[in-house]
Amino acid sequence: MGWRESWKLCSLRGRASARLRLLSLLKPRMGAIEAIEIVRGQQVALAKSKVGLRAIVARREKWEMDRVLIVALVFATLLLVVSAKKSSDVMDLQIGVKYKLETYSIQSHKVDRVKVHYRGYPIEFELGNFQVIKGWDQGQLGMCVGEKRKLKIPSKLGYAAQGSPPKIPGGATLIFDTELVAVIGKTSSINQSTEGNEEL
């Protein structure tokens, strides 16, 4: 309750109590009609003070309800923003090995020309020469012929904010299932064995 509302309420109550005191002083000297008029005036003043009090309380309750709603809306908005960032934003390239050979001899390196299965047909490109998105360049490095990987590429290593309209919106996280079919060009022979096939 503000100071103005409090002052009005005290003023109305003060007038009503002053009239009651006046009535008690004048009652023996006054006639019945004057006493009735004074009582009616006091009742009107008391009714006005109750109405004023109800209006003040109603305003206060509405203000508090509005404040609670605003706080709830702000909290809900923040919660949505945080959950959206957690679910869709990948900050770094994530490489999942779906299938790795027990032994392998050919591994891809930077500037090698590679042939990769993507969407059921092979594509060829040179690693590290910006012929594909950065996430693909990084995701294919060190891959062995026959190996399968699942790449989860953040937008900064993909198409960034501009996207690739109409199919890829700006800021999209990209997921690719790839398989290295061949390495053409400079290669390294590696004789390593792993502990068997790994599934993601």
TrEMBL record:
GO molecular function, one term: peptidyl-prolyl cis-trans isomerase activity
Catalytic activity annotation: [protein]-peptidylproline (omega=180) = [protein]-peptidylproline (omega=0)
EC code: 5.2.1.8
Entry keyword Isomerase: yes
UniProt xrefs under Pfam families: FKBP_C
Keyword annotations of the record: Isomerase, Membrane, Rotamase, Transmembrane, Transmembrane helix
Membrane-traversing stretches: 68-84
Any Gene Ontology CC annotation: endoplasmic reticulum
Residue ranges annotated for the PPIase FKBP-type domain, each copy included: 92-184
Superkingdom, natural source: Eukaryota
PANTHER family xref list: PEPTIDYL-PROLYL CIS-TRANS ISOMERASE FKBP15-1, PEPTIDYLPROLYL ISOMERASE
Protein name listed in UniProt: peptidylprolyl isomerase
Organism whose genome encodes this protein: Dendrobium chrysotoxum (Orchid)
Taxonomic lineage of the native organism: Eukaryota, Viridiplantae, Streptophyta, Embryophyta, Tracheophyta
